[in-house]
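user: Kindly work through both lines:
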Amino acid sequence: MSAIPTLEQLHALGPLQQPTYPDSGAVDAAVARLRTAPPLVFAGECDDLTAKIAAVSRGEAFLLQGGDCAETFAGVTADNVRNKLRVLLQMAVVLTYAASVPVVKLGRLAGQYAKPRSSDFETRPSPDGPVTLPAYRGDAVNGYDFTPESRVPDPQRLVDVYNSSAATLNLVRAFVTGGYADLRQVHTWNTDFVQSSPFGQRYEAMADEIERALTFMKAIGADPDEFHRVDFHSSHEALLLEYEQALTRIDSRTDEPYNVSAHFVWIGERTRQLDGAHIELLSKIKNPIGIKLGPSTTPDDALAYSARLNPDNIPGRLTFITRFGAGKIRDGLPALVEKVTAEGLNVAWVCDPMHGNTFEASSGYKTRRFDDVIEEVQGFFDVHRSLGTWPGGVHVELTGDDVTECVGGGEEIDEAQLANRYESVCDPRLNRVQSLELSFLVAEMLRAAGREGRASGVREQG
């Protein structure tokens, strides 16, 4: 049995991106409350997800991970959760049909309330001169309002994260088992999208194929349970040590530690130090885990992360989530994939096409170009095709609402329109239409990958 590191042991490692709380007694009280709270997820569910991601690593499934950059407490409403879930289900249907393999559905939700920041402070102009306050680190830490009171880190917010995550998971579970995820209903939504979009003709053929397949299944009386419900899992970045450590428990079945705040947690680009606290904590849990790898990652780094986080080389345990940027992925990714593959390591490769493509518009808004997002995913597929490996999935920041945060796409949102409906408290997200367009474009890439794989198999047999 692995021992759970104590908070004292973790803090002795000098963890990065942690808030400085003014009241240690309040921190202790919040952590004590979390330690007695019921689990948000169960160990058996985490093991099921590990098995699904193992299929991804073998090229037998595709992973779709998506949701808000940073959740907010105010955003925990039935409408918001339903809209986000709806767009992910729509994307998954398209990807499943195109890939002809199961799509593992992993929400970036029910825990994504904290964000690492490039600076500890934020400065804004005022009539009396520039004002500097602590940076907003997500609702898990402090408030978004630019006031001294709002920006003070408050450990009670950790308990609020737990409560908000529980409410979100309850809603998601009700939706996915209560008929909302019915396959025919989800396909109807996609058909409406294709018919109502000015650029929908490009995707009409695939939508028609799905329609014919569903009609055939209905005609022969096929109506399995999987048509009416789906498995949906939760994930977030494991950033705040007080929260993650307090919700790491010993499973009574296996006597092994699991993080019971989410099915899947990942280590971010800014906290992936090999000798750091975040890797130390996640190396001990049995959940499936991920780690973000940016352009500074070397092949030897990738091997070291695998040795530290998955020493037994368990399939489905470790996911490498790459975030290079559209202009860097074709140069940086091949060496990592080649080295990991040559060593026989079991890893699922997933592309995050968002974080390497952020820039500041002339208006001051952080944004991303839809074309850059697509280009990075295409580069990810191209690299894996050239190496004969499987492009295992995509990790996307998105919303089910019609926001204007990323430029481009079929709606041709430009920088002047960003102010129309920019609602993110952190990084820009793909809106509902951009997310669906992404799914159809990735579906085309998956189809091409499938055709080449089958052709390669025929050549090898011949």
